[in-house]
Amino acid sequence: MVLQIFFQETSNMDYELRLVVDSVADIVDYWITFNEPHVFCMLTYCAGAWPGGNPDMLVVATSALPIGVFNQTMNWIAIEHSKAYDYIHEKSKPSSAVVGVAHHVSFMRPYGLFDVTAVSVANSMTLFPFLDSISDKMDYIGINYYGQQEVICGAGLKLVETDEYSESGRGVYPDGLFRVLLQFDERYKHLDLPFVITENGVSDGTDLIRQPYLLEHLLATYAAMIMGVRVLGYLFWTISDNWEWADGYGPKFGLVAVDRANNLARIPRPSYYLFSKVVESGKITREDREKVWGELQTAAKDGKRRPFYRSVNKYGLMYAGNTGLSSLSLT
After folding, report:
1. Which is catalytic among the residues 199, 287, 290, 295?
2. How many other β-carbons are positioned within 10 Å of the β-carbon of residue 173?
3. CATH code for position 248
4. What is the pTM of this model?
5. Which domain holds residue 87?
6. Quick one: 75 and 135 in the same domain?
7. Which of 178, 255, 187 is CA-nearest to residue 224?
8. Whether residue 67 is found in the same domain as residue 140
9. Do 56 and 146 share a domain, yes or no?
10. Is Nucleotidyltransferase among this UniProt entry's keywords (predicted)?
11. Residue 113 in contact with residue 121, Cβ under 8 Å?
12. Cα(180)–Cα(170) distance, rounded to whole angstroms?
């Protein structure tokens, strides 16, 4: 199967590692060996939603077992990360490389009492096991946080009418970033490792949600720092509209819009100028915060609608992938 070919051909993996590190070690300060490994594993080898994955029913049914494809893949990724960590440090001497991974974390909550177990199982597989397995091979912990990504309802994702969502079906929840940083800091306090927010962003072609989203997540990060969490940096996802593996060019994540019908022209959105202002001044002003919240609330009152790249069945369950375009009202 593809998993075995890809990860067990260690000679190929080692060749790629040496090729990249030998080529750029002298100009790279911060390294991310793997981006969201458990997301890659789940959506490729367990669900088959991403390129390269075409699991049969038996693989899907057994994927969460200790001997299933999920744990197999995560084990191989941990091995390759450890090799990369050692080789990067070897080749970066006498300079000091900083090596870590970008770990995806979503704040999950059960929709109802009977969904508590589903949330518990999901957290047990995705929150800490991978970082625990490489805890002696990290110089920092990268956190990719987008929001309250999953409200579990049985085995599905529930659309809750009172919540605000991105175009990709991720619930907007800035306080979750604060809580995640404190949770991970407590878990790995003994390692004395700093954090980097390696991804934080929202798909929003209207740019109405993105501006308050940006400010509130920066404030959540700052609140965690006040509580003693060491955060080295914050990276917003993303600079310009990008390709999503399951959704193509549909969801708009960029601070800068890309006009694909006009020679890929780049058009800065208002959030681009807002982020630039915060970076240059090092401040979030009350005036800016009130302004962007006021614009969002006005649009919601006016019944403005926005794209939504998820299908929703009659039970309110969301489905990802090539589902076509619908729309949601701002709430």
Report:
1. 199
2. 22
3. 3.20.20.80
4. 0.93
5. 1-96
6. no
7. 178
8. no
9. no
10. no
11. no
12. 16
CB neighbour class for 41 (10 Å; exposed up to 12, middle 13-18, buried from 19): buried
3-class SS of residue 213: helix
Q: For residue 153, give the 3-state DSSP assignment.
A: strand
Q: How far apart are CA 19 and CA 32, in angstroms?
A: 16
Say how far apart CA 145 and CA 199 lie, in whole Å: 6
Catalytic site includes residue 199: yes
What confidence tens digit (pLDDT) does each residue in 229-264 have?
999 999 999 999 999 988 899 999 999 999 999 999
> Is the four-CA dihedral 247, 253, 257, 263 of positive or negative sign?
negative
Nearest to 149 by CA among 182, 133, 183, 126: 126
Tokens 């970066």 — which residue?
Answer: 92
Residue 263 phi/psi, 5-degree rounding, is: 60, 35
Helices (H) and strands (E) in the chain, counts: 11, 14
Q: Where a domain ends, among 32, 61, 96? A: 96
Residue with tokens 């000091």: 96
Largest CA-CA distance found in the chain, in angstroms, rounded: 61
Segment 75-89, tens digit of pLDDT: 999 999 999 999 999
How far apart, in whole angstroms, are the C-alpha atoms of residue 85 and residue 137? 6
Q: Which region among 31-35, 84-88, 315-319 has the lowest average model confidence (pLDDT)? A: 315-319
Judge whether 189 and 250 are in contact, CB under 8 Å. no
